[in-house]
């Protein structure tokens, strides 16, 4: 058995009837590149041959009674690949709107916790003869970087699939422990919590002092906006997509060329990520103006940050932290918006760097699962996010991926679009993954909050064109 970390467990406890703890990706493939036919049965055989390379696919949860401690993974004695791998199709013409609607409806269903926490749908009937793979996997199993590692295991770098060596030792299922055994483990685990709490306090107090000193000095040498940093604190203004969410979602996807974004960065300054954040800020500004709801204050974005090092490659689970960055949605000039975004990201990185890398993990580890689960349910029932101050307005996540083509059974992957999570108070998630010279965006929102989500995809492209026009 292997115990979940506190951070892994938190993605289980956050779930409510309207909030999901899994993440989803939509990959689109062109079978015309394959030297032989590619269909469901070929894909199934390939995945089955590589299951030993993806440990989370055969692990399922065992809970600790009374929520005394974080749950454990065991090797599922009843593992059934055909339960997780499913074969469906879209009706003609199979355009991107139909595909997005199908994908988001599948994504908006909880995973069965009595089985390993993943599903994969092979979707046929797309325009041009393409097919798609929609993969759902619970965030308690993986973070974005670990998800990219799984992608690399299941796909190939050449059209001809590479032979997969068998495992060094045969896979062995585990006996499910009894409730009394798990209760004993839970009591023992609860006894370690005070020690974790002391370590958390030792790390947090000096880190907060560093942040306050950095803030007071206003980060000399960083290009910044005085109107933002002159305020003692920056709060997230409420927008139409910041409130209690429903169980229903909308999803839109699209791609932008990395070379064009790098050219903007080289000509106008900043980093690739600064340009991406500026595109998101500009698209959000335009959408909010369209709906007569642009706040006077800038929006705040939560930006996940991987703290996984090379020694943890292939370990699964979550090794992630987060920083909050000001989005200059109140700046009408696109050049100044990019300059401001560069400064804001530098400040956010400076403040994030003052925090210990394991702070979020330790905080989650210290919080008893029963408390976190109860708090999530109470907050949802009381609709607290309609009344309290918001920590941020939107999640913007940039997941690095391979800059070369990948293949599934010989079919080249044309794009991979994240379909991530939203939660009460934050009804919009903008996640992108870099792949083979493109940035593949997947935007997810509450169905009622942003009914015209495809407009945001269009605005991202138009914002890039606007910045390109500013280049000499």
Structure description:
By secondary structure, this protein is of the alpha+beta class. It folds into two domains: 2-169 and 177-189, Chloramphenicol Acetyltransferase (2-Layer Sandwich), CATH 3.30.559; 192-404 and 418-469, Chloramphenicol Acetyltransferase, CATH 3.30.559.30. 37% of the residues lie in helices and 21% in strands. The chain has a six-stranded mixed beta sheet with strand order 5-6-7-2-13-12. The chain has a six-stranded mixed beta sheet with strand order 8-15-14-11-9-10, with helices on both faces. Helix 4 links the parallel strand 5 and strand 6 (118-124). Helix 1 runs parallel beside helix 13 and helix 10 packs across helix 14. The longest helix has 25 residues, at 193-217.
Query: What average pLDDT do the residues reach?
Result: 85
Tally of distinct domains: 2
Distance between the termini: 60 Å
Structural category: alpha+beta
Please identify which CATH superfamily of the largest domain we are dealing with.
Nonribosomal peptide synthetase, condensation domain
**Biggest β-sheet: strands ordered side by side in the sheet:** 5-6-7-2-13-12
